[in-house]
């Protein structure tokens, strides 16, 4: 399974000084102040391929609420011909990324530096793509290697999609022990209500952004991010197994002059984060 690092207690609730009158605590008007700062609430779903030799699959991920960061990694399956389980590399990489985030200072998280630090400490054989996303204030910062990535939906419509890094079709940039690192980094300004969907290629090869838009638009109420992640992952799996589905992978293969019909069965990792205002409770005396 991917790595879950769910930590409670993000943010601080500040209470003003109390006024004691005649031995009683007199609290006057209480009001909520909506900070200009934002917070990210995330949940995830992981559906590994059915493989008795690799029951944990080759994907890994984390959700770190304390540092307001999430990440996914996809071990490159080509290592299997050498008898190497690249999922071990991906899991170690994500573990090391969480450790690197914890060591960063109290300021804004640097996802690229965390990924570079994690890469330098990962010793397993194999290689992996990776996408790390963090929130500070109103900036969503990201570091990406390969064909994992993320999308931002605003008002339930696609507003931003991270670029794919690949040398050629189905040959993504990747991290491996001792190898050079080419990281794309950037930032996106976000607003309250935005939905961030982070995924490995098992998601991105099997679902168009328009299909995720439809899920967001037809879901009633205000579901938890984890519920959205489950729904998206389930549809991606259904598409992956559908030989009649004209998948993003099929479309990309056609552009590259290659033949592929239907979805692409793979490990599927989906992390969904909702952007919300950071509300601070205070007491007006």
Automatic annotation (TrEMBL):
Enzyme class, UniProt record, top EC level: hydrolase
GO MF annotation: an example: protein serine/threonine phosphatase activity
Keyword Nucleotide-binding set for record: no
Top-level taxon of origin: Eukaryota
Occurrences of domain PPM-type phosphatase (ranges): 41-275
Catalysed transformations (reactions): O-phospho-L-threonyl-[protein] + H2O = L-threonyl-[protein] + phosphate; O-phospho-L-seryl-[protein] + H2O = L-seryl-[protein] + phosphate
Family of this protein: Belongs to the PP2C family.
Name used for this protein in its record: Protein phosphatase
The species this protein was found in: Turnera subulata
Lineage start: Eukaryota, Viridiplantae, Streptophyta, Embryophyta, Tracheophyta
């Amino acid at each position: 399974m991917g790595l879950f690092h769910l930590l409670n207690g993000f943010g601080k609730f500040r209470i003003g000084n109390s006024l004691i009158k005649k031995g009683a605590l007199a609290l006057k008007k209480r009001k909520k102040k909506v900070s200009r700062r934002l917070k990210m609430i995330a949940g995830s779903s992981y559906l590994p391929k059915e493989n008795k030799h690799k029951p944990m699959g080759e994907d890994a991920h984390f959700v770190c609420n304390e540092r307001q960061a999430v990440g996914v990694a996809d071990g490159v399956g080509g290592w299997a011909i050498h008898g190497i389980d690249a999922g071990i590399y991906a899991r170690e990489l994500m573990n090391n990324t969480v450790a690197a985030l914890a060591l960063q200072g109290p300021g804004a998280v640097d996802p690229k530096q965390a990924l570079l630090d994690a890469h330098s400490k990962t010793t397993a054989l194999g290689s992996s793509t990776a996408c790390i996303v963090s929130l500070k204030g109103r900036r969503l910062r990201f570091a990406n290697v390969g064909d994992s990535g993320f999308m931002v939906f605003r008002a339930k419509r696609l507003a931003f999609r991270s670029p794919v890094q690949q040398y050629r079709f189905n040959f993504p940039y990747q991290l491996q022990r001792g190898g050079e690192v080419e990281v794309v980094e950037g930032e996106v300004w976000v607003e309250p209500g935005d939905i961030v969907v982070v995924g490995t290629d098992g998601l991105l090869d099997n679902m168009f952004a328009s299909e995720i838009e439809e899920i967001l638009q037809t879901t009633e109420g205000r579901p938890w991010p984890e519920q959205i992640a489950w729904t998206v992952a389930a549809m991606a799996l259904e598409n992956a197994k559908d030989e009649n589905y004209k998948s993003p992978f099929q479309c990309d293969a056609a552009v590259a002059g290659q033949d592929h019909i239907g979805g692409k069965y793979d490990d599927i990792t989906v992390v969904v984060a909702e952007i919300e205002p950071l509300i601070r409770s205070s007491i007006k005396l």
